[in-house]
Amino acid sequence: MGKIVVFGGVHIDILADYEEKNQKRLDRVGELYYSIGGTAYNIAQTLASHKQDVTLYSVLSSNSFSTVWIKREISNTNIKAEFQMDSAICAENGFVALRKNGVLEHAVTSSSLSRVQLDTKQIISICKNKSLAVIDSNFESHQIMSIVKHCKNAGLRIIVAATSDSKVKRILPVLDHYQIDVMVMNAVEAKVFFDKSSIEDITAEDIPQNVKSLIITNSSDGHYVFESGKRIHFMAPYVADVLSTSGAGDALTASVAQHLSQKQSTIDWDECNKTICEYVGECLTQKTTYIHPTKKKLPVKKIVIWGCVATAIVMTIFICYLCGMHDVGMILSIVGTILAFGQIFRGEMSD
After folding, report:
1. What pLDDT, on the 0 to 100 scale, is given for residue 13?
2. CATH no. for 4-284
3. How far is Cα 82 from Cα 343, in angstroms, rounded to an integer?
4. How far apart are CA 63 and CA 295, in angstroms?
5. Quick check: 46 and 251 in contact, CB under 8 A?
6. What is the pTM of this model?
C-alpha cells in the first residue's frame, strides 16, 4: 500500500443525541458525546486503524484550548500529524451537532482553515514520497487549488471529499484547471453541486470532464459510482443495530483511498466495495470516539533533578566514609550545598 496524505479539517465534536419520542420538547433529554472529528481526521483515523501509512495536515490555533485536546488525542493514534500552527486564529475549531436516533439533523461548524495563509513549503514537504492525497472542502477554492497543484507536481493521485452542502461548490473552480481522480459527496451535497432536486436526476453526462470517478453516498440506499459514462449502484452494508451514521461517508472515502493508493490504473469497484462494506459497517456500530480525561503529567524534570541531587548526596556520604571523614558538620555542609544547588537548578528549569 502506498503512503497517503490527508489535507483538511480536524476539530472537537460535541454530539447531542436524543430519541424521537422527545422531539416535540424544547429541552430534549438525551446524551452528550465529545470526540475529535472533522472529515480529514475521520478519513485519516480510519486508514490508520487499518494499518495504513497516513499523514494528516491541518491548521490549528496556537491560542486555543481545543488545540490541546486535539493534539493529545491524535498523539494516541497511528496518524502522523503535520499541523500548521497559527497565532492569529482566535476561533475554536469545533462542530456541534444535534442528532435524532443517531442521524444528523442540524449542526454548527467553526473552522479557521479557510481564513489562513497555508504554508506552501510545509505542504510541498508533506507531499514527498506519497502516492495519494485526500483533500476536503473545508478549504476555500484557491486553497484547494494550491494544494492540488503541489500534489500534482509531486505525482500524487487525488481524491476530493465534500464536507457539507454549504462548502461543496468550493470544488467547482478547481475542476476548471485540474483533473481529479475521485470526488466524493453525499446526496444532499450532490443536489447542491449539480443544482438538481433529486440525485435520481443526475446522469453520467452531468459529471464534469475533469472528474474521472464520482461517488454519491445516499445513506441506507448505499452509494452510486459514476465512471466512464456509467452509473453503478452498490447497496449499503447490512448492520443489525446502527448506532450512528455520522462519519460513514468518511469511512467510504478512506476505503477508496486505500485502493487508489496501490497505484492501480483503475479501481475494481466490486473489490473496493468489499472494503467499503467493512469500513462503513464498523463506523455504523459506534457513536463516537471518546475524548479521554486529561491526565496529570508526571513532573519529569523535577524527578530527574531531585534524582541527581539524591545521587550526589549518597555519593558524597559514601566518599566521605571511604576517606575516613567523620566530621558530621562538614558532611552536612556539603549536603546542604548540594541541596541549594539543586533548588537553584530546579528554579531555573521551571522558568
Report:
1. 85
2. 3.40.1190.20
3. 38
4. 20
5. yes
6. 0.77
Contact 14, 97 (CB under 8 A): yes
Quick check: helix, strand or coil at residue 35? strand
Residue matched to cell numbers 489562513: 116
Q: What are the φ and ψ backbone dihedral angles of 81, each rounded to 5 degrees?
A: -95, 135
pLDDT given for residue 343 in this prediction: 65
The grid coordinates listed for 312 are 550526589
| Rounded-to-integer distance, Cα 145 and Cα 139, Å | 9
- Using CA atoms, how far residue 108 sits from 98, 176, 321, in Å, is 9, 30, 71
Q: Residue 13: helix, strand or coil by DSSP?
A: strand
**β pairing state of 230-234 and 223-227:** antiparallel
Chunked into runs of 10 residues, the chain (351 residues) has average pLDDT values of 90 85 81 87 93 94 84 90 80 81 80 84 96 96 97 97 94 96 96 95 93 94 93 88 78 94 83 92 73 54 70 70 66 64 59 46
Helix axes 141-153, 120-127, angle to 10 degrees: 40
Strands 223-227 and 211-217: what pairing? antiparallel
Q: What is the largest CA-CA distance in the chain?
A: 98
